[in-house]
Amino acid sequence: MRRPESLPPAAAPFLGFARLLRRHAFPIASEQIFSFMQAVTLLGPRSMSDIREAALATLAPPPDRRGEFEAHFRTYFYGDAKPSIEGEEDDETRVKDDRGTREEENQIARQDKGGELSSALEQLSSRDFQRDADGIGQFRRKLASALPARRSFRTARTRSRGTLDLRRSLSEIVSADGDIPSPLLRCRQIVSRKLLLLIDVSGSMKLHTADYLKVAHAAVQGADSAEIFTFGTRLTRITSALRIRDREQALARAAALVDDWDGGTRMGPTLLTFLSVPRFSAFVRGACVVILSDGLERGDHADLETAMRRFSARAFRLSLASPLAGDPRFRPATSALSAILPVLDDLVDGSSVGGLTDFILSLARPAPAASVIWKRVS
Prior knowledge:
alpha/beta, Rossmann fold, seven-stranded mixed sheet, three-stranded antiparallel sheet, 10 strands
């Protein structure tokens, strides 16, 4: 789809409506937005009913959220006061893809007592990163060559050990008036696998999120392909912000994008929301996925277990880096960790920058599954 600035002014309301639905966690791909605009063009439109039918046909809201879709449509296009939406819950996960406006901050008292920092309550706040010295420059320089590699479907010219490049070879024969030159060969390129970092920014992780964001910035700068998301009570993509070369500017931009610093956490529902967005889900396929979280899921862990199984089925390697694993007494004994341990490739210490960067640089090396390692420890 074309960039927003290249679209005609008349298309802005339709793009804005699609973005509104995305902010309310409707799984809408860019291709669906383009189809919505095309449908409106084909219909005229002669009435608002035509626009509504085009939106229903192309944006395809789930049946159980049809009422919510209708409410958003009337609010956006008719200017009605937002009605109460039947079945709407306070724990709905919102998605922010490097854009969006800040919501009103909830006035929730914080309690800084160990595991009590883990909750499902949403709390919006900002974060300011101060400049300090670190040693992750070497990590940034080594990362591209250290990540696992795969054979791409794209090919490149080679002098040996390749397959015949028939098109170029025939072209050379024609150019040489029928003489048969040395055969021209091509081989499939070797490329690094994608790196996907999912960073928990809830209150129970606030002592580590600043370091994790610095590692994430180095990953985006050093890897051929890296994607960074934060999650707490919301899901935010911050990759574009971290592409800024200056680290302090990049982290300041990322801090402004994320609305749910140091609040509650809904790990399972948020990861399921990630997988429900087609463009985000595509980042997982064949990638090295590292989730930076303590894994403290309050309440039912069924959503977390479902999400992790789906991640494991699509990813090349699925890892959980928990700062709690730095304690020698730590065991994955909670119901949530026990449920997801069999699908994890790694459960490692995420309490220090050095340990985390060393682990990421070792992703290309095989290792026993997490369940095998922790069974020995127990």
